[in-house]
Amino acid sequence: MKEKIEQAAAMIQKRSSVQPRIGLILGSGLGVLADEIEEADVIPYEMIPHFPVSTVEGHAGRLVIGRLEGQAVIAMQGRFHLYEGYPLEAVTFPIRVMKRLGVEIALITNAAGGINESFQAGDLMLIRDHINFMFRNPLVGPNDSELGDRFPDMTEAYDADLRRLAKGVAEKLGIDLKEGVYAAMLGPSYETPAEIRMLRTVGGDAVGMSTVPEVIVARHAGIRVLGLSCIANMAAGILPQPLSHEEVMETAERVKETFLRLVKGILRELPGRSG
């Protein structure tokens, strides 16, 4: 694993002199943020040793390194999912590489279905905590203590100080930022109405097919995490219409300006800006 991380990081460092402090993982339809990065070096995933390749619509499959709102950033314009058939090590490999490159904070985003009936499509939700209904953990197997502790604490998987900062930014910008618990399912089929009722009963506010593996590995690596969900549709059984990926993409397009304002506002408020 360490050799693969070193090889991927070395290739990226040859392409860009920027030393990123903040990592951005951009979910379905949210890759537009990477287009805002200045002095950008763009690297297709297939050029990076040991990187998987995105196969889902709305995931461009490029790594973008540069500056955004005065911060040195590295952005994944598209992520990997277990349902694509990749092993957990591959899904979370970019987080390991980000850590090797110097990333201290990860802003992890996704498109999700709303379970909380006070939500509506187009809302943005700050992730307070998660429930892992994928029933798989990327840390299973031998532990390399140089990468992280055998038993990482997940009491505060989503950094409380970063959440406070995000809420303050949203208030300043007049953005109605919801907050809740993200439930991760394996996919790729959408959930059934019965599954959604179950998730609501155990405390889920939104549901999706990503994020949790990356968050677990980020915390294992000592990276602070801020999570944001775009509520792309209401989950199964809440509204009468069927669910579709097209609706997810349409909603992400509709809320992109609000999403951009919020994330850029958060980056402006984080310490460590230059210029």
UniProtKB/TrEMBL annotation:
This protein's UniProt keywords: Glycosyltransferase, Phosphoprotein, Transferase
Keyword ATP-binding: no
SUPFAM superfamilies: Purine and uridine phosphorylases (SSF53167)
One GO cellular component term noted in the UniProt record for this chain: cytoplasm
GO biological process: nucleoside metabolic process
GO molecular function: purine-nucleoside phosphorylase activity
Sites where the protein binds a purine D-ribonucleoside: 191, 233
Protein name listed in UniProt: Purine nucleoside phosphorylase
Upper classification of the organism: Bacteria, Bacillati, Bacillota, Bacilli, Bacillales
